[in-house]
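Researcher: Quick test of sequence recovery. Tokens follow.
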């Protein structure tokens, strides 16, 4: 990632030892410059948005490198289902077991599985995909408390910036499956339905798993947000709910999305994969 950023800087800077004070005498980036472009940060420097000041021009190369690495890696994945849920869910928990079995089933249907790369539901989904011999992708995010990628990831892409990571989830997913989770899970849920609502992306299945868990949120949307005119009935149809793996897979396979020049088309069924690794 940093090699790419280093090359990009060379394209724009010529003889860096003369024109760019951020270069060492051997032409490599200085420690100070690498820190600015995204090397591990101290706790008191973790608030990235607040730090977008004099470093903005240099930071754009780090951002660009994250997009390029993500695009180059994930374009090989093919049809994929992204599975979200709490990082705090432990092995043996019913949600963990559900995510693991669901990922296994998705692989059997020909899909790769993409997660946020961390523990909990993410680990369970990567584990299920890996055990099924499928493509198991983790889009890990660097956090101040150092989220570690789980050990069941076959293809790992790490990000410093949430917005780069979000683009990858949306661009390369055929469906979002949302298991019980907290703020991060809610963020991915509302990000996807907002993009679909505003027609920034073509609609794909967004499925909430465990009606009992999501009941309070759904009642609030139906009884407060909808009657007040903040959303429409059509908006409530953007996402579905399901309790069983069979129902989830059926929703993924049967959802119809609009295509250019046509009213709608059924999502093409992916081919069965022979290998769980990308080449």
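Model:
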């Amino acid at each position: 990632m940093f090699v790419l950023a280093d090359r990009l800087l060379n394209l724009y800077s010529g003889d860096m030892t003369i024109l760019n004070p951020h270069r060492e005498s051997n032409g490599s980036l200085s420690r100070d410059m690498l820190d600015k472009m995204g090397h591990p940060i101290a706790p008191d420097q973790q608030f990235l948005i607040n730090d977008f000041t004099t470093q903005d021009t240099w930071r754009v190369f780090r951002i660009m490198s994250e997009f390029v690495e993500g695009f180059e890696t994930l374009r090989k994945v093919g049809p994929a289902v992204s599975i979200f849920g709490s990082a705090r869910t432990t092995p043996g928990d019913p949600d963990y077991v559900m995510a693991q079995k669901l990922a296994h089933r998705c692989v059997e249907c020909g899909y790769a599985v993409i997660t946020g790369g961390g523990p909990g539901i993410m680990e369970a989904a990567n584990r299920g995909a890996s055990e099924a011999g499928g493509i198991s992708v983790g889009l890990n995010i660097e956090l101040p408390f150092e989220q570690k990628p789980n050990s069941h990831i076959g293809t790992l892409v790490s990000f410093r910036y949430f917005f780069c990571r979000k683009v990858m989830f949306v661009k390369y997913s055929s469906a979002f499956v949302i298991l019980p989770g907290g703020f991060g899970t809610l963020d991915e849920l509302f990000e996807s339905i907002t993009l679909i609502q505003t027609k920034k992306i073509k609609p794909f299945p967004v499925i909430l798993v465990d009606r009992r868990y999501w009941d309070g949120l759904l009642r609030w949307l139906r009884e407060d947000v909808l009657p007040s005119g903040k959303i429409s009935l059509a908006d409530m149809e953007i996402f579905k709910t399901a309790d069983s793996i069979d129902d989830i897979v059926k929703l993924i396979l049967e959802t119809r999305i609009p295509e250019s020049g046509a009213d709608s088309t059924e999502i093409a069924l992916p081919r069965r994969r022979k290998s769980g690794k990308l080449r």
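The chain has two domains: 2-71, 79-258.
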